[in-house]
Amino acid sequence: MCRHSYTLACLSIGLLSLCQPLQAAEYSTSKQLVKPDKSDETANAPYIALMLDYIPATDNLYGITIAPYHFDNNYQQWGYYLGYARSRETDIIVPEPAQSYRQESLFRLGLSYSLTADLSFYAGGSGYISTVSYTNNISPKIVDGKPTWEEDKTTHWGAEAGLRYRITEHFILSAGYNSSTESTILSIGYAG
Asked: What is the per-residue pLDDT across 4-44, written as a single tens digit (0 to 9) for each?
């Protein structure tokens, strides 16, 4: 037991002697304090914008867009967005007893670049889907038989660009143009 305690005591003293110069350097008052590097701090505070969209296309579309900003310290000026909008079902006039309606939807994805702390430019791609649903006037010969519904979908791919302006800390407006719907996109939202 004595033999091991002597070795342990020597190791402890050796470790303490190594730590003392490090502690002295840490707490030395002869050096001035180092000021933190300002480049490490974020220039723009990160936030997420949640916006309600209005797109006056063939049928009016209403939707939502989510747009995070300034979350990557290496790319402070950049953000991205994802949006979805949809129209109500619009009846199409067809001869009786047939039925038909149209519904449109728009998917949007892109990047945004902050020009100033409050003004940003955005651009991206979009997919505009127009769906026409109709009955084929063929009903099964059973009690309460309903006609069969069929669907035709057309997709128009396009691009969009616009500007977003944060009016106050939590209020943001956006306006842009979408080539797939050939119309404007107007948005109002909350930034927090």
From this structure: 555 555 555 554 554 455 455 555 555 555 554 544 444 67
CB 163 within 8 A of CB 119: yes
Give me the DSSP letters along the chain. Answer: -HHHHHHHHHHHHHHHHHHHHHHHHHT-SSSPPPPPPGGGS-SS--EEEEEEEEEESSSEEEEEEEEEES--GGGTTEEEEEEEEEEPPEE---STT--EEEEEEEEEEEEEEESSSSEEEEEEEEEEEEEEEEE-S---SSTT--PPEEEEEEEEEEEEEEEEEE-SSSEEEEEEEETTTTEEEEEEEEE-
pTM for this prediction: 0.71
Residue 154 CB contacts under 8 Å (≥ 6 apart), including other chains: 129, 130
CATH topology of domain 36-191: Porin (2.40.160)
Output the pLDDT for position 145: 76
Judge if the upstream peptide bond of residue 147 is cis by omega within 30 degrees of 0. Answer: no
